[in-house]
Each structure stands twice: as C-alpha cells, then as structure tokens.
Design a protein that fits this description.
single chain, alpha/beta, Rossmann fold, seven-stranded parallel sheet, disordered C terminus
C-alpha cells in the first residue's frame, strides 16, 4: 500500500483516546512509508492525524473543497493540497489517490464517506480494504447495525466481511496487509434476471 485515505472528525470528540489514536495512526503511517490522504483540514482529528504524519516525516495529501478553504480551515503545511469545487470531487479524488480507507471517530460526514466507499467496494468500483478504527467502542453500534443488516437480509455476509475492524492502528494495518477482497455484488445481474 502506497497511500491510505483516512476519514475522521473535524473536532476532537469527548474522549482523549480519539486524539491519541489519530496521532498514533499518523505516526504509524509515516513510519511504515505509507502516505496519508485525507480531507485537507487543519482542525480536529483531521488536523491531528495530518500533523502527526508530517512530524514523523510522512507524505500527507489533502483534498479540500473551495468552500471549506474559504472558511480558512485548510492545512497550510501539507505535502500536497488539492482544492476541488465540490464534495463529490473531493471524495472521488481521495478514492483515486488511496489504496485503502480507514475511518477514525467522526460525525455524519465521516459516516457518509465510509459508507459510500464501502458501497463502491460492494459494487466493484474498487477492491481496496475499508476499515473502522474502533476507538473506545465508538463504532460498536455501527458494527452491530451492519450485523443487523445481514440478519435482516439487506446485506450479504461477504459484504459485511469487507468491514475490517480493529481497536488500534497497528492491528488494522496488519489486517489490511492480509486483505483479499470478496467478489463484487452482482445485484445488477440478479435484478435483470
């Protein structure tokens, strides 16, 4: 893996463990020679993971919509900062630049980004690993909901298996290294028959 995309909050959240994990992940990526691709902001966990990777000598590429740049939340010390017009362009470029995706704790934007990239994997748009860094059980309710989707037959078990979960960055990267993508969903083929 050359680069990993990290989705995470633009605030720090209510648990110091979130900030510690963001810093640990940034340092680990840099130490492993893996570049960071992220949303380009200087605030919250986004800024923390970028700052930690930069401080450890890592490559950090940000992708930021012009509207957020206008609000002066962009990080000015990155290896590269791409300014795009829309959130859709942001997500597409981040996906193109990355070899896998990690969600640290975050809000609705983080959830939306992770679920969209997971959907793209299910549909065969990419075969890259998608992981949740479940710090202090932050993602436990979401993981349980994914399991409920399987039980209710709205999500195939093999698509649920696309979600790699770990409680620390090193374990998550180890699981990414062992990842083998299941076949893409053939729902379009099934819908036509």
């Amino acid at each position: 893996m050359k680069r990993l995309c990290v989705f995470c909050g633009s605030s720090f959240g209510d648990d110091p463990a979130y900030l510690a994990a963001a810093r640990d992940l940034g340092q680990l990526l840099a130490a492993s020679g893996i570049g960071l691709v992220y949303g380009g902001a200087s605030v919250g966990l986004m800024g923390a993971v970028a700052d930690a990777a930069l401080a450890a000598g890592g490559e950090v590429i940000g992708v930021l919509p012009q509207g957020l740049r206008d609000r002066e939340v962009g990080h000015n010390g990155l290896t590269e900062l791409h300014i795009v017009a829309t959130m859709h362009e942001r997500k597409a470029l981040m996906a193109d630049l990355a070899d896998g995706f990690i969600a640290l704790p975050g809000g609705i934007g983080t959830l939306e980004e992770f679920c969209e990239i997971l959907t793209w994997a299910q549909l065969g748009v990419h075969a890259k690993p998608c992981g949740l860094l479940d710090i202090a059980d932050y993602y436990a309710p979401l993981i349980a909901f994914f399991d409920r989707m399987v039980a209710a037959r709205f999500l195939r078990a093999e698509d649920r298996a696309r979600v790699i979960v770990a409680r620390d960055p090193a374990t998550l990267l180890d699981r990414f290294a062992d990842y083998s993508a299941p076949p893409a969903d053939k729902w379009l083929d099934r819908a036509r028959t």
